[in-house]
User: Fold these one by one.
Assistant:
Number 1:
Amino acid sequence: MIIETSCLKQYLLQHYLSKIYIIIETEMLFLQENNRIILKNLKKNQFIKITKIILNNDSELNKIIQLYQKQEIFFKKKIIIVIFLGKSLTLKQKLFFKNIKNILDQNTICIFHYPNLIFNTICKNFFQKYISKIGLIINNNKNNINNLYTWINRKIKKYKIYFSLCVIKNFLILYNYNLNKINNSLKILSLIYFNSNITNVILKKYYNFFEPKKAYHWINAIVHKKKNIALHILNKLKREKYTIEKLIYYYKNFIYVLLNIKTNQINEKNYNFRNICNYPIQYNFLNSLANHNSLIDIYQAFKILKNIEFLTIKNKTKTIWIYLKILSIIFN
């Protein structure tokens, strides 16, 4: 049977333990959530001993069989967690799953993680044919919003803050359904507004204060000529799936101010850091950057920005991040 995260907890309460659980999930937080729910249920049934292995290639499949056969002195019941890193279901893996019933026993539960698997129709049909009768497959439909609500409601309860359904909807939209950013924001909100009701006003205030600051740190590192730090911050923003449009917006503000300083239209008296973002960037560092770089360098940055805006329309995300790296180190 194939089910989704939103149904998993209820399903486990109503059914006997499966010998195999296969979690196919590219969203890491959902994968961790599914794993947590399964382990919690297994713990109630005295499955405590956990062994985890990561398989980089199919030559290591025998390790699973060895773990099944291994006798534990202190634990009769055990859990094996196997993480497959590949993007495809290989012929050797298919052969392994076809014959897995030959090694199953009542005291061993195996949880398979597929964090990178492309779950196409062929994979789905295979698992339904060979695993459904002996195990459970967990895979989320990307369009099922209930999985997000289930996940976020558990997090809200854990962090002891309160959201209405309306605020949750706005929260998801505001962060473009990015689970990592939502999770990080919930942690911070729980520290600031512990045991409080989060309204749309509070949410907007928090968002407007914290989100621009991430881009500010990137711009500020560029202004201070800290190229390695600028690249490090940019890579972190990429991992967090930070909005590219916002990075372009703040960089464009920065480059216009730099051009105006270079052409003597902005000086220390009429400089306003809010023309870049809401956080202070010192004029003397901008002035130093303008003095050490030519107009050609600045116009080159403008040209790259134009290319990025064109690539945004074409949705060429990988190339955009490469150009953003160039903008991080373009000035001397």
Number 2:
Amino acid sequence: MLGKGVRGIVIGAQNRGKLAVEFYEKGDLNAAMEFFGGIETKWHTSDYDTQLIKVDYGLVPDQEAKRRVINLIENYILNQTTDPIRYPTAGFGVNSNSWAQSVIEYSGGKVSGDMKGLDISNSKRVPRTYLMPFCTVKPRIKVN
């Protein structure tokens, strides 16, 4: 439970020296729980600056949109174990924000505007081959 009857999957891209995707990473989970009221914040403790953005999938049913997103993420996790993307110095390059934008775009979704966070590279995309269900015969495009 993320809070107030809200259930969900928490997925984020992290700087682990490489662009690593993790389910329920502690900071991301705490941020989601704080946003949805699952944990309380106190004035004397640090809290998270969480943002909720609706992704528009047009006429695509919700279940299909969710399936697309999860499939892309599973593919990325498998592919990055053998061919990881180095996390860029100071975030300049393909970073966690560009990863999120890539998943949204490649799954057929659209968002208006940028997301909070390190968005200096929000227009950059993870090469599509990293989110495909198989390793390509030719090497992937290198980034960062």
Number 3:
Amino acid sequence: MSKLKKFTWLLGLIVLCIFAILTWYKIHYSMDIAEPFTVTVPQAKYKLLIATQGSAYKNAVLKGLISAAKKTQNVTRGN
């Protein structure tokens, strides 16, 4: 095999490995699609916007915030 052919095969293999690693990374670490919803407090003085990307940790934090708000005020959740 010539040096150029070996180099071409090696370069192709490296590109294929990089593509496979990037695909695995995107599948493994990408965020879920977050469902939009509204939490309303009729007598609230202020409004709060919370943006999330849908990871398990962020969903748990969001549930904690909503439950804490429900304990302190009359909160309803709607879409």
Number 4:
Amino acid sequence: MEAKNNRDGTQQNRPPVLFEILIQEQFCDLEVSSIVTTLLQANRTCKEAQFVWKFLSDHLGLVTGQAGMISHAERAVLDHSLPDYLLIVGGDKVDPTGWLRRLRAMLCLWWTAVLLSDVATAYIKTLKVSESRLATKWNDVSVLSERGYFPYLRLH
């Protein structure tokens, strides 16, 4: 890894933290914009850029969000070059086959992965376990309750 310089010209001491933002067609624009804005602001408050990110998807190229946001994404390779943090964005067309194996690779290493909105719901449906502590977005609680017994699924 090349040595990078801070804004003031001094040498950066450690590599930045890598976030992968995994998106699929019809991803939630608000979630993506919130993540990127937060990372941008965090970098602005630090002496050196601490956070970098890249977009991944099921396929290489342009991916369009629900409200028309377009992002260029690299193709996600199952368990290759895993990031420090994996953020999987929800949307209208959530397909677990596109991100489930990469998520499992992260979890096997005890690395952090965050499932947002519709992705959390899809994961709960795929997982089919009821004794885990689970969280999902408020409007999916009733749907999941009808599908099975989830005693730890709460609406807060």
